[in-house]
Amino acid sequence: MPQYGSGLFVSIAHLIRGLFGGTTVTADVVMTVINSLIIWALIALAALSLILLERKVAGWMQLRTGPNRLGPRGWFQTVADAMKLLGKEDIFPAAADKWVFGLAPMFVIGLSVMVMAVIPYGKGMVPVDLNVGIFYLLAVSALTTIPFFMAGWGSNNKFALLGGMRAVAQMISYEIPLVFSLLGVVMITQTFKMSAIVNAQSHVWFILLQPLGFVVYTIAATAETNRAPFDLVEGESELTAGAFTEYTGMRWALFFLGEYANLFIVSAVAATVFLGGWQGPFLPGWIWFAIKVLFMVFLFLWFRWTFPRLRVDQLMHFGWKVLLPLSVANILLTGVGIYIYQLIYPAIGG
């Protein structure tokens, strides 16, 4: 039986097995479909909510009115935008590589679904609780450079190609410090399992033990999601919409959906690894997880509407000459701290 996490998801799996008379293959297929539908619904809900939240936060920070026409306080504006995009014409450029051009946005959102399957949303609410959860998450996340380059190459447009090449250079460069920033937590817990990492924070959150790792992760995650001040993939002043220049309608919307899905993912990973996940007093675990994710989302929105865009050379310089040495130093300090703790702990324990 595949690992469907624990608690709620295991209960659903057992219920399905009972309904199908214990047939393993059928129950596994049905459970996989249910998990996929839940994750798709979560992505759609997160995207609609985060787009509205970003517009409201941007309006508040820039002292201007955000969406205020459709629905109470403009809450239905993102729904109206989604309906509009669904009705737009799907245009393929005459010179584009149609297969590469068409598949790129599907890969973007597909990879987001694969990553969200291993995130613990609360105690006993892990769709697939892999023993190598962190490793799987980083491996799948690293593949997101491919659809961006596919979009740039398949469009047969110079602006799109430059945007795709920027995406590859930027995301590969910042992937390394991002991975290293998480290694400190893995060294402390001796596990890649995300639910076990959350359980290890029952007494102290790892942001207190790994403050440098948290800072490096936050900056690298901002670059990985191609958000300001690292939004060079679609630098409007020189590349129009970058890798997405030739896309219209729902295919363009899938890139937009993928951006906000990735924003949710990096915030959820930060909440899980550094902020204790579902750990917290009085309230249910999933509420604590949602509060921590919203805190991280607000932090990323704050960055976007505060800092100006970096130049390409500044972006690469900062990644390789600042973040990478800091992430390596964090690993070294963590190793020294673990060694000292192992020397002292037997004396303390008697």
- Gross morphology is globular
Helix vs. strand class: mainly alpha
Largest sheet: none
Into how many domains do the coordinates divide?
1
Distance between the termini: 43 Å
**pLDDT averaged residue by residue:** 86
Along the chain, the helix and strand elements come as HHHHHHHHHHHHHH
Unreliable segments (pLDDT under 50, ≥5 consecutive)? 1-6
The total of helices stands at: 14
As a percent range, the share of helical residues equals: 55-70%
Give the number of DSSP strands.
Answer: 0
Strand content: under 5%
Any idea what the radius of gyration is? 21 Å
How are the SSEs ordered, and which strands pair?
Elements: H1 8-19, H2 24-61, H3 77-86, H4 98-116, H5 133-142, H6 145-154, H7 158-189, H8 194-199, H9 206-209, H10 211-224, H11 236-239, H12 249-273, H13 285-304, H14 312-349
Helix pairs in contact: 1-2, 2-12, 2-13, 3-12, 4-5, 4-6, 4-12, 6-7, 7-10, 7-14, 10-14, 12-13
